[in-house]
UniProtKB/TrEMBL annotation:
The keyword Signal applies. This is Uncharacterized protein. Residues 1-19 form the signal peptide. Keywords: Signal.
Length: 144
């Protein structure tokens, strides 16, 4: 039992060490985005199709809400800026209060259909029910 706990802690440390800080631009929202981290990235992301990328968004919400929803979309920079929603889900146990730091975690797996393109990845964190956007950030990503 103790060995599995130690192994889980080591694996958690390895996963956290591989998540680098990514340069993002704020797009809207009443809350405050603090930091974005994505596994195997540092500054700018280059995604390998089929590989899982774990993302973490630290933020401070603008107000209290019993539940948050995460929406992630990919926008093509060529072809008129067409966007495709890849995640739209309530975050479990996501009651928040203003003035505290929270972290939303999610994973994305790029499809090979996007190979050899630069896409804009947008993440929105909103109040469930009212769709009031607290945080919106985006970054450009090269899909190899």
């Amino acid at each position: 039992m103790q060995f599995s706990t130690i192994l889980a802690a080591i694996l958690s440390c390895i996963c956290l060490a591989a998540a680098g800080v990514v340069n993002v631009t704020r797009c809207e929202g009443f809350g405050t985005p603090i930091q974005t981290r994505i596994s195997d990235c540092e500054g700018y992301c280059r995604f390998q199709p089929g590989q899982v990328y774990n993302a973490e968004q630290d933020f401070m919400p603008s107000g209290a809400t019993p539940s948050l929803t995460l929406m992630v979309e990919i926008c093509l920079q060529s072809g008129g800026g067409v966007c495709m929603q890849i995640i739209d889900a309530p975050l479990p146990n996501s009651s928040v209060q203003p003035g505290f730091l929270y972290t939303a975690k999610y994973s994305v797996v790029p499809n090979d259909v996007l190979s050899n393109r630069t896409v804009e990845m947008r993440a929105y964190i909103s109040h469930t029910g009212t769709t009031r956007v607290d945080v919106c950030v985006y970054c450009d990503v090269d899909v190899l």
